[in-house]
Design brief:
By secondary structure, the protein is α/β, with parallel strands linked by helices. The protein is built from 14 helices and 17 strands. 39% of the residues lie in helices and 16% in strands. The strands form 5 sheets. It has a 7-stranded mixed beta sheet with strand order 4-10-9-8-7-5-6, with helices on both faces. A 4-stranded antiparallel beta sheet has the order 13-14-17-16, covered by helices on one side.
Length: 416
């Protein structure tokens, strides 16, 4: 049983009205009411996001930027207004600095290839951290191998916090970029990114932040952070899949070369040469995901209306209740116990495989994620094959946490 004395913050959110926004939450799984606790992988979508995308497709669909006819003008206005809204949501100084991508992975790849191939030389170093998602490891490995550069890794402590002192002691004139997660998708650790940026900028080193797990759970202001690059995904923050954002300081984006070539990212094309478009279009070759941009803007509206600080307080309450109840179960060990965490609870149970636990939970209608969560080096750090991960969103409830605890207790009894 969860601790009923754990209360929500004064910024209590109206769970009933929030849940009514999400039609999928009323379905059943394996004959049980569905409890969706896989939000770190992808969150569910509210009616207003679905409606905004449907409205575009049924009333205003056309290609953007190129047409003089009414539908193209309407589509362009919707698309660019979405960019402005997203820029305001993340505190970007200008919408020119907001690039539409397919998601965090593509955003990081864009910087890895444009920055990597234009700014890295043999012997240079990129600094990552031990908790990074594969999408913030593999692109840098590819680029560094081709450029003769190397990767250095900020170690983590046993509680899942970064050893920031290591960064202070190891950043050097060889370091050309620091790229780290704002929030760990596996541990839930909220990293001290302001300190990381301060240290890096003290050495004139730019910083990229993977904000995929931060954007849904806390207020983001890239100007206040002073981040050089910031990436996040729509589908983790109640928006559609296949859409993401790369924020970059204009000074950097102007300097970096285009990544993809084609329509929209050009000013003029001749057989002799091509001149490239200005920001943000320089990095947006081809027809964009117009509906995705509109859906993400609607998701930003949804988060703004709820107040992301209230969401964070609510999710912290869920995490506290989950932690207190789960750690009392026999053989259970949490992975990631940092004092500053987002709503992620990862765990292992002695003698049991995470996949087996996840299967028994699914049979009880509890949807969690199992495996290495695209953080295999982190699993190696803890000498485990993977974890079971429950991750929370605005629509989750204390009753669902209680069900997670009882379902896990039943899984232990069945599998032991």
């Amino acid at each position: 049983m969860i601790d009923k004395t754990i209360q929500t913050s004064p910024g209590w959110i109206d769970l009933e009205s929030i849940r009514n926004e999400f039609p999928i939450l009323s379905r059943q799984v394996n004959g049980q009411p569905m409890i969706y606790l896989d939000n770190a992988a992808s969150s569910q979508k509210p009616n207003r996001v679905l409606a905004a995308m449907e409205q575009y497709y049924t009333h205003s669909h056309a290609n953007v930027h190129r047409g003089v006819h009414t539908l193209s003008q309407e589509a362009t206005e919707l698309f660019e207004n979405s960019r402005k809204k997203i820029a305001r949501y993340i505190g970007a100084p200008s919408e020119r600095e907001v690039i539409f991508t397919k998601g965090t992975t593509e955003s990081i790849n864009l910087i890895a290839y444009t920055f990597g191939y234009s700014q890295l030389s043999e012997g240079d170093e990129i600094i990552l951290s031990e908790m990074e998602h594969h999408s913030n490891i593999v692109p840098w490995q590819i680029v560094c191998k081709n450029k003769g550069a190397s990767i250095r890794v900020i170690p983590i402590r046993d509680d899942g916090t970064l050893d920031i002192e290591w960064l202070s002691n190891n950043i050097s004139d060889k370091t050309k970029l620091v790229s780290v997660a704002h929030v760990s998708n596996t541990l839930g650790t909220i990293n001290p990114v302001k300190d990381i940026i301060r240290i890096a900028h003290g050495h004139q080193v730019p910083v990229m932040l993977d904000g995929a797990q931060a954007a849904p759970h806390m207020a983001i202001n890239v100007k206040e952070l002073d981040a050089d690059f910031y990436a996040f995904s729509s589908h983790k923050m109640y928006g559609p899949t296949g859409m993401g954002i790369l924020y970059g300081k204009a000074s950097w984006l102007d300097l970096l070369p285009p990544w993809h070539g084609g329509g929209e990212m050009i000013k003029e094309v001749t057989w002799k040469e091509t001149t490239f478009n200005s920001l943000p279009f320089k990095f947006e070759a081809g027809t964009p995901d117009i509906a995705g941009a509109i859906g993400l803007a609607a998701a930003c509206d949804f988060l703004d209306q709820l107040d992301v600080s209230d969401i964070a307080a609510h999710e912290h309450t869920l995490l506290a209740a989950c932690t207190k109840g789960m750690v009392s179960l026999p053989g259970l060990r949490p992975i990631g116990t940092a004092p500053e965490k987002a709503g992620v609870f990862s765990f292992v149970i002695e003698g049991l495989h995470p996949y087996d636990i996840g299967t028994i939970l699914d049979q009880q209608g509890v949807e969690v994620r199992t495996g290495h969560h695209c953080t295999q080096p982190l699993m190696d750090r803890f000498a485990i094959p993977g974890t079971v991960r429950a991750s929370f969103a605005a629509y989750n409830t204390l009753e669902e946490v209680e069900k997670l605890i009882s379902a896990t207790q039943k899984a232990i009894k069945i599998l032991s």
